[in-house]
Amino acid sequence: MTTILAMILAFDTSSAACTAALFDGSGLCVAKTDEVIGRGHAERLVPMLAELLDGRTADEIVVGVGPGSFTGIRVAIAAAQGMAIGWAARLHGMSSLALLAASTKGAGEVAAAIRGGHGELFVQQFDADSLVERSPLLNLPPRDAAAQTSAKLVIGSGANDLVVARGWGEALDGLPSAVNLMRLPAALRTLAPKPVYARAPDARVPEAA
Question: If 0-12 CB within 10 Å is exposed, 13-18 middle and 19+ buried, where does residue 173 land?
Answer without folding.
Answer: exposed
